[in-house]
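Ticket #4471: complex job returned nothing on first submit. Input attached below:
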Amino acid sequence: MGETGCYTYRIEPRDVDFTRQATLMALGDDILHAAGEDADRNGFGLRVLGANNASWVLSRFAVEMERRPAQYEKLRVETWVGDVSRLMTTRNFRVLDEQGNRIGAAVSYWAMIDLSSRQPLDLRNNPDYLKAVRDEPSPIEKPGRIARVEPSRTEAHRVVYSDVDFNRHANSMKYLEWMVDMLPVEWHTERVCRRYTLNFMHEARYGDLLDICFEDAPVSLFEVRNAEGTALCRASLEWK
Amino acid sequence: MGETGCYTYRIEPRDVDFTRQATLMALGDDILHAAGEDADRNGFGLRVLGANNASWVLSRFAVEMERRPAQYEKLRVETWVGDVSRLMTTRNFRVLDEQGNRIGAAVSYWAMIDLSSRQPLDLRNNPDYLKAVRDEPSPIEKPGRIARVEPSRTEAHRVVYSDVDFNRHANSMKYLEWMVDMLPVEWHTERVCRRYTLNFMHEARYGDLLDICFEDAPVSLFEVRNAEGTALCRASLEWK
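Support reply: We reran it on our side without changes. The output follows.
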């Protein structure tokens, strides 16, 4: 059975917003960073996959946080591989504070794709990967499918240099940043985002002109659309 | 005489662009982070100053890099306090690779301000600060004054939630990000930014509507203006 990997982070000045607490994006970055480190450690990281012309693609991501940790606070992210099906795998996370108290948890779905064909690869053919699977349930509800959004407000965004990562596609956490930037700024002091779910459907590329659509319901809903109106990413944010 | 502080960093996936090299912003962040850590260690960090209703304000910043380090590369940033005058102090930096070779250097000018009056404080009244001064010259040419820019292209930018830091002003490296995002994307593969200089004149606040002005000369020039046309920040970027 696979092991749980543990990775430590510190909330740095660049990770916090004006409340001096970590942004949702910085926390998501740390969680996804732990996923990358743990994949590396187990022999199926991006560097190994890249040599085989393959890569990981994040498909869905759900994060729940009790609170946003403060500047200079230290975190421990524990992560393990859950289920594996033919085309999708689950990676789970727990987020602990310095005293070992659980302050958050996350569940992510990933596909492994061939970089030439962009088609998913059968994960059951990867013995290293199967060895990492751990028989321990996901710590929170898995990320569900988000239905089409009926926007009450829309903002345009051109995908720029600083949005894209090594494959010239927008970085996962940038979608969340574009969304959160549309919210009334007071929400960041008055509310806590208890849970968010992201669905990644198609990739936004450098230069794409996007619409960031916001449906201001009790659960905030977002949809990022390209110029043809195709939904690239959807999100739901629950507040308390 | 003050000591040189040493701080280590690793170039993480979120620090790189599509060339898998650290962005200028990520490198600048690491350098400024070392400044913050070193100030903390010497008793005049933001946390101590904040308790006295004071803060550091970055006034000018010049960075020279031989190359942009690659993803997962480790860096060492050495930093020390140079001159102190009544209203301004110099902090110097060397950037070393894992083998100890110098791959970059930087010089910054800072003022210490009273947070209520926004007026600069006399640095010569701070004995902890005077003790930290080190009689060692700046490793590169100091950041000069940049004259008014005659833009060939201008883009609008609204200062959003993710742009601002704890005082609801735009983070220093965000100005550089807005500028670099205007450059032709091929420059990041075809050219190396040998040196850049930033002049910070006034702060951009949450919600401000800015013009990012670009003068496409042999040395790229930028000016960030507010709605009244006041220059908030200027920059020059030299390429090779």
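The radius of gyration of chain A is 18 Å. Closing as resolved unless it happens again.
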